[in-house]
Every structure is written in structure tokens, then in C-alpha cells.
Amino acid sequence: MGTLLVKNGTIVTENELFNGDIFIDGETISIIDKEIKVSADRTIDALGNYIFPGGIDAHTHMELPVMGTHSSDDFITGTTAALHGGTTTIIDFANQVRGDDLHSTLQKWHDKAGNRSLCDYGFHISVTDVNEDTISELKNLVEKEGVTSFKTFLAYDAMKLDLGSLERLMIEVKGLGGIITTHTENGKMIDALISKHIQEGKLSTKYHPLTRPNTAESDAAYTLMKLAEKTGCPTYMVHMTSTGAANYLKRAKEKGLNVFGETCPQYLFLDEKMYAHQDFDIASQYIMSPPVRALSDRDGMWKGIKEGTIQVLATDHCPFMLEQKRAGIDDFTKIPNGAPGVEDRLELLYSEGVDQGIIGLQTFVKVTATNPAKLFGLYPKKGVIAVGSDADLVIFDPNEVHQIKCESRNMRVDYNLYEDRIIKGKVKTVLLRGKVAIENNECLLTPGFGNYLKRGLPDFSIS
Ligand code: URP
Ligand code: ZN
Ligand code: ZN
């Protein structure tokens, strides 16, 4: 591989902001300086642009089996879209089907992603069956296979763990130095509310959020934080939506526990009013779990990000075409849950967070790249602009104004949750391991360029 010089950009890291040049030799960054006079095979002038570390989306679902169908992006289309949006690494979930072992679960996801992913990728494993066999698999997964994070569910019959099993898993994962991530909704509360709504014939989309109230999340968060305290296991709540859950997280943090939170753009930028939209094809786009919330909860998510209680912005990218969503036109419980977003994350957060003065550039870099890299064992290879790190860079024009249109996005889905929104700031050029991945709105990589990342143990030195 050759050399590449990125000149005159404004380099943004978690602690610094400075004008300078970056010299890339092969796949990694070899010099960072105010002015580099070495000649390179290619020079990119980044004057007037920010240079961010390549985004890391710690929560995606490519080609995920759900309710007899699959999320509509696979590892080719979904990772192409990720790169267009400035995300150079994803961490997808390999979901165990009860009865399967964890290694064969991981192999299924390797089969989906290997020779197909365009961006770099890792896997969390979702453990749905805690028994002697699965427990005995964990050591090899952590030490040899590079899977150091294990997802657990407190909702969904096919996925959820009872609290005894969760505690057992947490004890084992702590012993191995890994981290537990949790879908934090109280499944029993939700199941009761769903049954009640079905009995009353309340089956339109507007009832979805009423069956999954914010109290179902805060109740589960309380329980999870208690287990984190009891076991000492590092614990991370995925796709947080509610002020109540954020408060329990904050309290647990104040006790000195290694507990962390993630939220997603849909919980910062969207409004629950959409569920009552008369057009099913619009309302159903927002059917995801947990649901989009009201303003008071959105404010809680922003507060969490600003204070550092919530450390990661991921997407929970899990798109379904409208035709797939229509499976539930007469019954919201049959609509596949999930929404697209892998391509929108950086631009939305920049435009509505940084440009609006709600968060600063350092927070932007932390939540989109540095913090997920640390928590999921990718740092300092990923998530930072530093000598020796992978040359994963986003050249970002903070002044370009554009409008989000589904037709000009690359996700394999026939709507965009932010359609027509005016955005200030645009991903212009993306480098992955020193290769130009995105330029002039085109993806220049081919399927299989993405590497599987064997992840290390979490690094908790995050702010
Ligand atoms: O509705 C959602 N979030 N679907 C994806 C699976 C999950 O719960 O993360
Ligand atoms: Zn979930
Ligand atoms: Zn998810």
C-alpha cells in the first residue's frame, strides 16, 4: 500500500482540536504535525474541514432474523451505507437461538459478514441460554475469538434471561474481564400490557408505545444496576430512552460501579407523536423497541450525554422495508421491530448537537468513536487519531447544508426517519485503514475489504 497525506484539516480528538496534517503509510497513521513536508503518493487538501476519527457504531443488526423475516440490510448494503455516513467500524449482534451453542452462533455471523462487509466489524454475542455448556464456552470466546461483550435481554420471550441466569452470566463475564450489555425493558410488564391491549382490540400503531412505557425501562434499569452492584460485572445498557433509567445509571456510577449507557439518534431527534399518524406506512416506520419517547425523556438523554452518564451514541440499525412492516397492518404486535439509521448518525449529531451548541466537538468524538472503541476493546487501534492507530478518518465539512432524502441515502430501506430534515455538516471523504472509502458520494471499496476485529478487553478510562 502507498502513502497518503491529509493536509490543512482541523483535527478533532477527545482532548484536542488543532490545525495540522496527517501522514498515512499503508494502513496506519505515521506522522501528525502542524505541517508535514514529506511527499506522498496522494495528497488530500482538507482545508475548512474537520477530521474526525472514523465512527464506531456499537449496535447494528445486519440481516437479523426477526418474526419470520430479516432486517433488510445485509453486510454488503449496510456497511456501504455505514461508510457513507462516516462509520468505519460496526459491532453487530450474533444472536443465540436457544439450544444452539455460542461458537456456532458466532460462526453463523462470520458466514454472513466474511468476504462481504466493506467496513471493519466485530460481534457481540447475545446469550439467550445460560447453562453449563454455554458458560464453558465463554473463556475461549473472550481469549481466542475476540468477543468480549455479551448481550442479554430482559424482554422478548425468545431472548430474555431470568434474573438468576443473568446473575450467573455476569459473574462469569466479570471473571473473564469482559462486559455485559443489556436490553433493559421489563418483559413481564410489557407482556401484560400487550395482552390487555389485544383483549381490548387496541391493535393500531398508536398502542405500541403504550405497551412499552418508560417505566418498563426504568424498572429494568433499577434491577440491572442492583445486579451490577452485586456481581461487580461491568454493565452497559443498550438503546436507552428514559430519564428514569438514566437516573439509576447515574446513581450506580456515583457509587463507583463500572456501568455505562448508550442511546441512539431516534431517542434524541424523534417524537412519539408519530405513532398516531393516520398513514400506517408512516407510523410503522417508528415501531421499534423501546419506542421513541416524549420530550421529557429526550431531554434526559441529552442531559446524560452532556454529563457523561451516557457515553455512547449507537444506532440499533435494524431496518425493514415497508412491505415487511405491513405484516402488522391490522395488529401492531406483528410489525417487525426496528429502524434504519447507520448512515445518519454522525451528520444528525453534528447538525443538531454540535452546530446547535448543545454539545461540543470533544463530546461528539467521544460518543461516536472513542468511547465505544474503549468499552469494546478496540482502542487505540480504532476510535482515535494518533500515530500507530488505523488510518480511519472522516473528513467533514461543517458548513455544507443539505437535506436528508431516502433516495440519496444508501441503506436498503424505502424510507428515512429523518426525511426532508435540513442538516448542516456533511461527511465528504472517509478513509478506512488508509484507503479512500468514500469520495464524491461514491463508495470506492468492494465487499470483503472489511476486516473482522478480534476485540480485546474493555478499557474503562472514559470520561
Ligand atoms: O426494535 C428494535 N430495537 N429491534 C432490534 C432488536 C433490539 O432489541 O435491539
Ligand atoms: Zn434491544
Ligand atoms: Zn438492537
Could you outline the blueprint of secondary structure elements for this entry?
Layout (H helix, E strand, L loop, with lengths): L2 E10 L4 E9 L2 E6 L8 E4 L4 E4 L1 E6 L4 E2 L2 E2 L6 H8 L2 E9 L6 H12 L6 E7 L5 H12 L5 E5 L9 H14 L2 E5 L3 H13 L8 H4 L2 H18 L3 E3 L5 H12 L4 E5 L2 H4 L10 H4 L11 H13 L4 E2 L8 H4 L19 H10 L6 H15 L17 E11 L18 E11 L2 E5 L2 E2 L20
Parallel strand pairs: 1-4, 1-5, 6-9, 9-10, 10-11, 11-12, 12-13, 13-14, 14-15
Antiparallel strand pairs: 1-2, 2-3, 5-16, 7-8, 16-17, 17-18, 18-19
Helix pairs in contact: 3-4, 7-8, 8-11
Sum this structure up briefly.
The protein is an alpha/beta fold.
Overview of this structure, please?
The chain is an alpha/beta fold. The chain has a domain at 54-375: TIM Barrel (Alpha-Beta Barrel), CATH 3.20.20.140. It is built from 14 helices and 19 strands. The strands form three sheets. Strands 1, 2, 3, 4, 5, 16, 17, 18 and 19 form a nine-stranded mixed sheet that branches. An eight-stranded parallel sheet has the order 6-9-10-11-12-13-14-15. β1 and β2 (17-25) form a beta hairpin. α3 runs parallel beside α4 and α7 packs parallel to α8 (243-254). The longest helix is centred in the middle third of the chain and has 18 residues, at 214-231.
- Helical segment count: 14
In the CATH hierarchy, what is the superfamily of the domain at 54-375? Metal-dependent hydrolases
Strand residue content: 15-25%
- Mean of all residue-level pLDDT scores: 98
Task: Output the radius of gyration.
Answer: 21 Å
In CATH's first tier, which class of the domain at 54-375 applies? Alpha Beta
CATH topology of the domain at 54-375: TIM Barrel
Tell me, briefly, the overall form.
globular
Ends: how far apart? 36 Å
Structural class: alpha/beta
Number of strands: 19
Share of residues in helices? 25-40%
CATH architecture of the domain at 54-375: Alpha-Beta Barrel
Main sheet specs: 9 strands, mixed
Q: Which regions have little confidence, pLDDT < 50, spanning 5+ residues?
A: none
Associated small molecules: N-(aminocarbonyl)-beta-alanine, zinc ion
